[in-house]
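LAB NOTEBOOK - FOLDING QUEUE
OPERATOR: T.R.
BATCH SIZE: 2
PURPOSE: Compare the predicted structure-token outputs for two unrelated chains run back to back under identical settings.
PRIORITY: normal
REVIEWER: second-year student, initials M.K.

ITEM 1
FIELD SEQUENCE / FIELD STRUCTURE:
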Amino acid sequence: MTNKIPTLFLSYDGMTDPLGQSQVLPYLAGLSENGYDITLLSFEKQENEGKVNHIKSMISTYGINWIPFTYTKQPPVFSTLFDIWQLKKKVKKLHREKSFKIVHCRSYITALIGLWLKKNYSIKFIFDMRGFFPDERVDGGIWNLGNPVFKRIYNFFKKKEIEYFSEADYSISLTHSGEKIIHSWNEVNNQPIPIKVIPCCVDTNHFRQENICISKRKKLQEELRISDNSFVLSYLGSIGTWYMLPEMMAFFKRLLLKKKDAVFLFITAESPEKIYVEAQKLGVPKEHIKIKKAEREGVPLLLSLSSLSIFFIKPVFSKKASSPTKQGEIMNMGIPLICNSGVGDTDYVVEKYKSGYLVDEFSDDCYDHAVEKLDQILNLDKSRIIEGAEEFYSLSKGVENYSHIYREVLL
């Protein structure tokens, strides 16, 4: 349609990754329906090459023009510089053809191009920060500031961070906690800058208990050797960097004292060996650990086996801006949660919607206290938990908020 507004969306995350499929494409599909002619550029991992055609056919039904690049991982730093150079070259050519009105940049690396487009072509620049990227790299142990190269890169992006927020026509934070921090920075020009809080949203039609096929669920239980009366603690997603496997396993060990038939179900693509090693360290019998990999389509079925779900995230500064996607997905299945405080808006969501239990410290005493309250946690109002997910994490509300931002910047 010729009357659609030409819009450029840049993502360093791939659309062949689960994150791209859950946290980028659904928004863009909604925005495309709302009158935006979207050109999407993203970086895809080589190991996901086999998924590109499937994603391409899906995206074409949304009316989105997708240009995938191959993400280059090696050598560190130089590979990222090469990716940025490729992206800039392509964007320059595309802008001559399409005359973009908006550039929407997902995270800090693509924002380098968004800032350049704003300064050189006066295109409206939306900075979708996703998290405090430089601090995430340090907090996650990826950038060691004792190394002068990483120290220099960190300082570069901290300087750019201030420039992004100062220059962006609109910024997006995943959390209210992150928004407060940004608004407290005096170095940012024109405070309070326009920020919209949009958490990682959930396709509430996909994560729904009533869509679960009972016979498939029974078959899955048999495959995993989980009996009908087993207590199932689940963990959804990747392990490592932020997610605290030793502490979660320590919690499960305390849970086993009360629920001797309990099973710890990991819904993850991670190496089972890593999980088994941690269980062995703590003396958790291997037969109580179940591990199953699933594509996005199969996740709700696996989650439906849960009595309770858990995630512990490192409560570091950068995680103040973090919105765990899994929180909304689990809540929308009506499953109560055990999670730790001090991460993004997690505390607020758990307390407001009575959706679980917050652990304030990683200790046996704290875990035992949670286990003592288990009956109370399991009896939380499931319909209220689901309503909370739909109110806070709704995908349609997310699309509505993005559309509002697009309209605002074009005024």
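ITEM 2
FIELD SEQUENCE / FIELD STRUCTURE:
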Amino acid sequence: MPQLGESIAEATIIRLNVSEGDTVAADQEVIEVETNKATMGVTTLCAGTVQKIHAKEGESYAVGTILGVLDVTDEEATRTGVSPVDDQPAPPVREEEEEGAHFSTPEGEGREPPVVEPSIRGLPVPAGVKGAHYISPRMRARMDELGLRAADISAIVGSGAGGRVTVDDLEKFLDYIEEWPSSTASPMRLSVADSMRRSWTRPLASVGLPVRLDTLLAFRREQDPKPPLTLYLLRAFAVALAEEPATAGYLIGEQIVHPRAFDIGVAVQVEDGVLVPILRDVDSKRVGELHDEYLDLVTQARKRRVPESAQGGGIATVTNFGTFGLVWGTPIPLPSETLILGIGAGIKKPVWNETAKAFEPHTESELMLTFDHRVVDGGGAGMLLNRLSELLQEPAEL
């Protein structure tokens, strides 16, 4: 199992594309894996014959675990520059320039690699039920055995001193729900849960502003091809942040770290989760320059294949929940970001025209900005939304 990203320690096998005895070419995708970020392919280092497959579909393996064994000729190994290794868990490897990850090429048969259960890491959110605020060492040890977080026991009413949840309370609760229908959470869902838990350890607040879209929609209709509406919002967001970079700062101790680049993510709904591919240097590129890159990243994200170059490092995210018919919402920023901009559905509304003394129809969308209140105050967030609204009234400049 190769290193599929800086923060990825394991991946789940979702498809084996070859069988033992198959002949494979160099750089052929032989295994498809799922990480907490995307679906990726594991490819071969060189041509050969699949001698042994250790990996099993549905199982998760740590970085460095041998997934399979290739039988290769000396000439092929020399040509590709690979060296045989023992058939045992290998040290983590990095493939900075390769598009896919690689099969190892050891000699001979070996022992079955260790299977690593899927895990999630991060800061738990204190459970919001009386008694769950304090967890005894014994209770903590039992929760660690079961892989539970504090938030997972929030439904349990404690019987201990001061309403404390005891190990007996936990065991009774687990027995109670044992016969309930259940399903295993996917790595994607666990990743979303972990991110939201860590995000919620901060004081988050949201502000909203109705923004007229008539000028933008009229301008967009004249374009060929028509850029997605979200792309205009994403571009305007980046420009507004570039004008006030402190708004996108990140608080570390007693310092606010300011962005060195205005890389903005776009939330893409996929099966059982959300992926956020990142567009780089959005403040310095016009909508026309971003168009093809944006469509390509969204298309790849929907297939759960986000390129490594578009993973992580964003300073803010844009999410268009208006595509689901939602008028407003309170999105939560990623743990590594201070801001997220939500876009509500465009609604035709009557607006009073004082000059004409009559109501006129206008299309409005509610923009919602959720922010880390340690870094940004309501006034600063409001000014950012107002500036964003101004920029949207001049779409030709975007």
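REVIEWER COMMENT (ITEM 2): The chain has eight helices and 19 strands.
FOLLOW-UP: none requested
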